[in-house]
Amino acid sequence: MSVRSFATLFRPSQFFSIRGGVHPEGRKSLSSDCPIEDMPIPTLIRVPLQQHIGAEAEPVVKRDDVVLKGQLIGKARGPVSANIHAPTSGRVIAVGHFAAPHPSGLPIPTITIRTDGADSWGPRLGRLRPENASPEEIAAKVAEAGIVGMGGATFPSAVKLNLRGKYALHTLVINGAECEPYLTCDDRLMRERAEEIVDGIGIIARALGVTQIVVAIESNKPQAIAAMQRFDRALGIPLRVQVVPTQYPMGSEKHLVKILTGRETPARALTADLGVVVHNAGTAHAVHLAVRYGEPLISRVVTVSGRGVRRPANVRVLIGTPVAEVLAHCGGLTEDPERLLLGGPMMGQPIQNTRVPVVKGTSGILALTRAETPDLDTMPCIRCGRCAQACPVGLTPFEMNARIQADDLDGAGRIGLLDCITCGCCSFTCPSNIPLVQTIHFAKGKLAEQEGRKHQQEETRRLAAARKAREEAAAEAKRQAMAKRKAEMEAKKQREAAAAAATPQPAQHGEPLQ
Amino acid sequence: MIEAAVSMSALGLGLGLLLGVAARRFHVETPPVVDAIDAILPGTNCGACGYPGCHGLAEAMAEGSAPVTACTPGGRDVALQLATIVDTGSDGAVAGMAETEPTVAFIFEDHCTGCMKCFKRCPTDAIIGANRQIHSVVVDACIGCDACIEVCPTEAIVKRVKPKSIKNWYWDKPQPAFGSGNGGYAA
Ligand code: SF4
Ligand code: SF4
């Protein structure tokens, strides 16, 4: 870490905006003045075993088990995975499958709990005093609590805390940008729980061993900025609040780092390569709860908004609560929504079924009416180039779109398909309403599926080879056993013959025995 | 007795030697294209193509007696790869090959008697079960080759489209229907 790069860290002149990007209407006022409220405990809770990037958790309870709040019900499997805990007390009524909070609505392994309403805590995780805890202990605690990135990426946070050994880290960036329209959950959390968040930030910073902290908040959240500006240290580590322009996709990790440090993270590299680690403000709050109070990640703040919702709100929801119940808590729907989304309007995913559960990465539940959704009347591309201008990664979406439409996925890959962050700026800005990001979603999914199929083919080839080897080994063993038996038989016969030849007499002596 | 043993051993040794020498002497180089084809084929020797194992098909394909589309478990992807190294004869063969959905075997539990026949036959060990216990297919290991279907005495096994999971699901390709005919293109 040279002095120069430190100096460039906050050069105000760099402080403009990201390349491209768009300025969608914020519509945050729908819910930004609604304090975070708690929801009554629903009667049924469905906790998927995969709410994070990485391997699915392994269930450690079975049907009819009685579970207490905070009890481990799914155990992390492998290095990139996350623990799952019971959000409240009750009885496990199924360890099976249920529709995923995903556009496909396909079933995924899920634990269903009938709650008992008592909400009684089981034993909490052991508490830590972060002031004297080692970074490893903090990371282990965060892993134990099953904390994942709360901004929506749901990458297991403990893995990110353990980057310390591999990279020379110097800065922790706390992402409070919340650039998606409608969403206000991080905003509210920062306004109401600034002290706890700052404590969580300090804990994360200690685990990472960084020397400075930057909290990045978009300029459209003055109260959150004011709340966070009350602090200039987190557990003794200098902290500063940096106001960033209101622009989508400011909350994208690499773009945030670009704007704060002026340095661009190379394609397919990590921000850690630049010595910077980004965590979400909500994650910091979860870390605070886990380390100070031993509370695993069992609830999260969700923004329920859109004009299709009667009473927009910010609700602290237990993980596993059905979306329908959250909507009902907010007065239900005013009309049949045009789009029902989990997440923000730009990157959120539509769901078909409101019985799917809220998971660790659900930042918002949006019911958008016809008036709020863009016109879908598609026209041909007029080569205006606006999508390329808006693309924050510097791609040419219209060209990728053309190649994908012509089934040339490899061609699209050559012009950066895999670098696309699926932010949706291109579709948002296209005057012809061409479904650019939707086409890219298809292409990325298809490529991933092909990759998976190839991988599977290799695996089956390996299985077939293993079977052949086993069969050959078995045949060989059989042959050898036969040969051995034959040899033994022959040896025996030889012995008998030799014995008969050497001692012909004893046979006669033996006669009386008969 | 000893004579018998010695003579048998000598016979075995002699014949073995003869075989070894013959193998050396009459060794046939497999044409490199056969190996190349072999490398692309799934290598599971399932027999779905009707040839004795993947190598058999590779040879047939090299001499042009089998189409590149013969490997059904490999599907379109394998055919496309093969078409790059094998003369396909008619150009349309692969292009016309529909992108088939991968299929897997499915066992109707009601009909399964636990006879272990399919268990023994599966080239990728994708069937789990034990004697007199209902068998089941490990979907991720199954290549949809039909081998088990042929041997099942109670016809308890069928082939069906591989169930979609959240891991391999993806959006359909958007087919934008342009609002007003072909927009301004015609002019
Ligand atoms: S979705 Fe992809 S192509 Fe479109 S603007 Fe975002 S990064 Fe660029
Ligand atoms: S913004 Fe739309 S119309 Fe303009 S170049 Fe891109 S795809 Fe074409």
From TrEMBL, chain A:
Keyword Transport: yes
Its membrane topology: Peripheral membrane protein
Residues annotated for [4Fe-4S] cluster 1 binding in this entry: 381, 384, 387, 430
Residue ranges, annotated region (Disordered): 449-514
UniProt keyword annotations, A-Z: 4Fe-4S, Electron transport, Iron, Iron-sulfur, Membrane, Metal-binding, Nitrogen fixation, Repeat, Translocase, Transport
Highest taxon, organism lineage: Bacteria
Gene Ontology biological-process entries: electron transport chain; nitrogen fixation
Residues at which [4Fe-4S] cluster 2 binds: 391, 420, 423, 426
Domain 4Fe-4S ferredoxin-type: start-end pairs: 372-401, 411-440
Record note on cofactor: Binds 2 [4Fe-4S] clusters per subunit.
Keyword Transmembrane in record: no
Record EC number: 7.-.-.-
A GO term, aspect molecular function: 4 iron, 4 sulfur cluster binding
A single cellular component GO annotation: plasma membrane-derived chromatophore membrane
Positions with biased composition (Basic and acidic residues): 449-496
Compartment(s): Cellular chromatophore membrane
Cofactor(s) the protein needs: [4Fe-4S] cluster
One family name in Pfam for this protein: RnfC_N
Subunit structure: The complex is composed of six subunits: RnfA, RnfB, RnfC, RnfD, RnfE and RnfG.
Function: Part of a membrane-bound complex that couples electron transfer with translocation of ions across the membrane.
Similarity comment: family membership: Belongs to the 4Fe4S bacterial-type ferredoxin family. RnfC subfamily.
Protein name: Ion-translocating oxidoreductase complex subunit C
Native organism: Cereibacter ovatus
UniProtKB/TrEMBL annotation, chain B:
Subcellular location: Cellular chromatophore membrane
GO biological process, one term: nitrogen fixation
Keyword Transmembrane helix: no
HAMAP family hit by this protein: RsxB_RnfB
Topological type in the membrane: Peripheral membrane protein
Protein name: Ion-translocating oxidoreductase complex subunit B
Domain 4Fe-4S: 29-88
Matching PROSITE patterns: 4FE4S, 4FE4S_FER_1, 4FE4S_FER_2
Enzyme class: translocase
Quaternary structure (record): The complex is composed of six subunits: RnfA, RnfB, RnfC, RnfD, RnfE and RnfG.
A molecular-function term among this protein's GO annotations: electron transfer activity
A GO cellular component annotation in the UniProt record: plasma membrane
Family designation: Belongs to the 4Fe4S bacterial-type ferredoxin family. RnfB subfamily.
Role description: Part of a membrane-bound complex that couples electron transfer with translocation of ions across the membrane.
Record gene name: rnfB
Binding site for [4Fe-4S] cluster 1: 46, 49, 54, 71
Residue ranges of every copy of the 4Fe-4S ferredoxin-type domain listed in the record: 103-132, 133-162
Cofactor: [4Fe-4S] cluster
Note accompanying the cofactor annotation: Binds 3 [4Fe-4S] clusters.
EC number: 7.-.-.-
Record bears the keyword rRNA processing: no
Native organism: Cereibacter ovatus
Positions bound to [4Fe-4S] cluster 3: 122, 142, 145, 148
Stretch list, region Hydrophobic: 1-23
Residues annotated as binding [4Fe-4S] cluster 2: 112, 115, 118, 152
